[in-house]
Amino acid sequence: MKYTSQSVAKKYFIFALMLLAGEILFGLVLGTQYIAGDFLFPEIPFNVARMVHTNLLIVLILFGFMGATYYLVPEESERELWSPALANIMFWVFAAAGVATILGYLFVPYATLADLTGNDLLPTMGREFLEQPTITKIGIVIVALAFILNIAMTVIKGRKTVITVVLLTGLLGLAVFFLFAFYVPDNLVMDKFFWWYVVHLWVEATWELILGAILAFVLIKVTGIDREHTDKWLYLIIAMTLISGIVGTGHHFFFMGAPSYWMWIGSISSAIEPLPFFLMILFAFSMAKQKRIDTENKIALTWAKGTAVMGFLGAGVWGFLHTLAPVNYYTHGTQLTAAHGHLSFYGAYIMIIFTIISYAMPILRGRPHGNSAKAQKRELAAFWMMNIGMVGVTLALTAAGVMQIMLQRWASDGTALNFMDTQAHIVPVYMIRLVFGLLVLSGLLTYFSSFFVKEEK
Ligand code: HEM
Ligand code: HEM
Ligand SMILES: [Fe+2]
């Protein structure tokens, strides 16, 4: 560790991993409820488990991004963080708010939670991914402002690199677009527009900048290639991201009451969105091939390459599958959407967090050359278990999606099944999904155990 203030990243990483364990457990609860509808009812109804699952996902990614930022910005800026104390305080504020919110979801009926937290004063609750009580959202804004202030001051006072500028732009975008979560129009069509301004412009624009910056940082560190080379890649990736991703929001405006020209705009622009993800593959693999140094931390490079590949599969390939309007007409809101949601979130954003943790955590734990070969071997096993598990979950959901579309939507008049009958037909596939989900959990537990492998002297 070059700068002592980098050490604040450690607790952000550990907390993100704890939330990930919770997220996957609730995923398994949901997966079981798809097979046995009354599993854990009335204690944990499906809607509550779903909210906990997706909210833990978002919050763990935010913790991961913050940890990554606190780790890499001092090193890039060649100076200590502007205020390590602020970074520490904000960790506890955010963690407490996060835990309180999840406990609220689990132990208080949602409508009561809305009443208790004054949702009627400024109604923001009830939208997918943005279910948090308004006071939690305000808390998130405060944490984000303090975080960005801290990072911006560090960047401004220190050395400026392409990585920190791209990262800061992405983080600013993340904070700014979150503000749309406070605007909930009564008109349902307008409501959808603003909801996507948060959800889509996060995952397909601003977060992609954050992803690119973290990926470039780790690649520079583990390959020893100079930054002039990586900067060109990063510029290209972010240019393609913004060109395709911003207008690409149109792929959500097909059948929700928006003007029909969005069919063309949304289809064409979002069809280009896989390109930046593909560039990330070329970036990671060409860097790996030309590497100048032989770092002992080999597993970090494996995660970096894995992120590029899985991100492209989940976002690029599974996104493209249903992004053209005539296809989306049949696939909208089916299990195919869930297939894409799972592999994209995992492949791009969970894996980049594993990547930075894999690189930074050994250093934060006083192992500048990485973990022992034995620990890395264990981590590699976890890497494959989690990846195969998530690909299995995705393929099962894809099969489920195709069945759903055929039985419920494609079927000719009179033979189409209703929603619940369709789901009943798909139960065997949901069993397969659950098995792969268990593999993901085993992979995560294996990963955790790799932290406790004794250092050989
Ligand atoms: C890190 C791993 C995971 C990630 C990133 C993830 C992500 C997500 C996302 C983004 C959604 C919302 C999907 C949408 O709206 O289309 C979701 C819902 C869901 N997830 Fe996961 N998930 C993970 C693991 C799991 C596992 C292991 C299972 C079960 C075996 C699971 C089961 C479910 C179920 C059943 C839903 C609800 C789908 C519905 O509403 O019908 N997830 N997950
Ligand atoms: C890492 C980046 C990405 C993530 C995390 C992501 C995640 C998601 C999630 C969770 C949903 C479901 C939202 C809901 O609840 O309705 C969704 C929908 C969608 N995504 Fe992505 N996505 C990414 C990139 C892409 C890309 C690059 C494309 C196109 C090439 C794409 C195309 C779509 C489309 C068309 C839908 C709407 C599906 C429907 O109509 O039901 N996504 N995405
Ligand atoms: Fe999108």
Describe the structure.
By secondary structure, the protein is mainly alpha-helical. Helix 7 runs antiparallel to helix 11 (298-321) and helix 11 packs antiparallel against helix 13 (335-364). The chain is 75% helix and 0% strand. The longest helix is centred in the C-terminal third of the chain and has 38 residues, at 373-410. The chain has 15 helices and no strands. The mean pLDDT is 97. It binds protoporphyrin IX containing FE (2 copies) and fe (ii) ion. Residues 128, 203-204, 251-252, 270, 273-274, 315-316, 319-320, 322-323, 328, 332-333, 337, 340-341, 344-345, 348 line the site of one protoporphyrin IX containing FE (HEM).
Distance N terminus to C terminus? 21 Å
Give me the oligomer status: single chain
Order of helices and strands: HHHHHHHHHHHHHHH
Summed up, the helix count is 15
Bound molecules: protoporphyrin IX containing FE, fe (ii) ion
Secondary structure: helix percent:
over 70%
Mean pLDDT: 97
Radius of gyration: 22 Å
Structural class: mainly alpha
Shape: globular
- Largest sheet: number of strands, sense, barrel closure: none
Query: Percent of residues in beta strands?
Result: under 5%
**Strand element count:** 0
